[in-house]
Specification:
With 246 residues, the protein is mainly α.
């Protein structure tokens, strides 16, 4: 692949092919998100953000090599965020249950693992930025190799995101099963409470005047069991909608 045509930064030769001005190729560089916000982001979203960051880094690196100090800072910031997020994603395997952790470990380090591809991509970005910062004539080749690796890096990041998505869906399914079990237990207790309430009402009726207060308690218990039934049905409906949305 031919090297990227770069604008002269310090007498660097450029291609005769017209190039688009830097300002027309990208929006102003965005500030990197605050690292602390990652704690509020799901692993699936964090993995998906890596794909967006990878594309942003390539563009920022190309523009930095054209002489934009602003994009150089932005690219460094994006690379740091990408690297930190990647380390966190890989490390999550240690904190998951055995089955989920195995899925993540295989995704990154298995026979078809994508960890090496992602790490190599980040290293290429860092190398290109270092060369651009030093105004090295080798930056063209570094950019060409970086762009050529973009598709494989995206495929690798997609694979990682899919692995986290599998883990999230498995956890969601487990929680739904637990919820269904809890609801079933509540319904069993509610049925037993209804039987107790009915028997209490019968006994209160037989006791006549002396069972009046007991009858009030039995009626309150009956109302409570009806409310429990309603809440149980709502929980079952919610679990069903969550399963269908997963």
């Amino acid at each position: 692949m031919a090297a990227f045509p770069l604008s002269a930064r310090n007498g660097m030769a450029t291609s005769s092919t017209p190039t688009t001005p830097s300002s027309a190729l990208s929006l102003p560089p965005k500030a990197a998100p605050v690292a602390g916000r990652d704690n509020d982001m799901s692993l699936v979203n964090l993995a998906a953000r890596q794909r967006m960051l990878s594309q942003r880094m390539v563009l920022q690196t190309v523009l930095a090599a054209r002489g934009s100090d602003l994009h150089m800072k932005a690219a460094r910031s994006s690379l740091a965020l990408f690297t930190d997020s990647q380390a966190r994603l890989v490390d999550t395997a240690r904190h998951l249950d055995a089955a989920s952790g195995d899925i993540i470990r295989k995704a990154y380090h298995g026979p078809a693992g994508v960890g090496a591809t992602i790490d190599a991509f980040a290293q290429q970005v860092g190398t290109a930025l270092d060369l651009a910062e030093r105004q090295s004539p080798r930056v063209d080749d570094a950019l060409a190799r970086l762009v050529e690796s973009t598709d494989s890096a995206l495929d690798a990041l997609n694979t990682a995101t899919t692995a986290f998505d599998r883990v999230a869906k498995a956890k969601s399914e487990t929680l739904l099963k637990e919820l269904a079990g809890i609801v079933a237990s509540i319904q069993t207790v509610a049925r037993e409470a209804k039987v107790v309430s009915f028997n209490a009402q019968v006994m209160a009726a037989r006791a006549g005047q002396h069972g009046r207060e007991f009858a009030v308690v039995a009626n309150v218990l009956s109302g409570i069991t009806n409310e429990i039934d309603g809440l149980s049905l709502q929980a079952v409906s919610l679990a069903g909608r969550s399963r269908n949305a997963a």
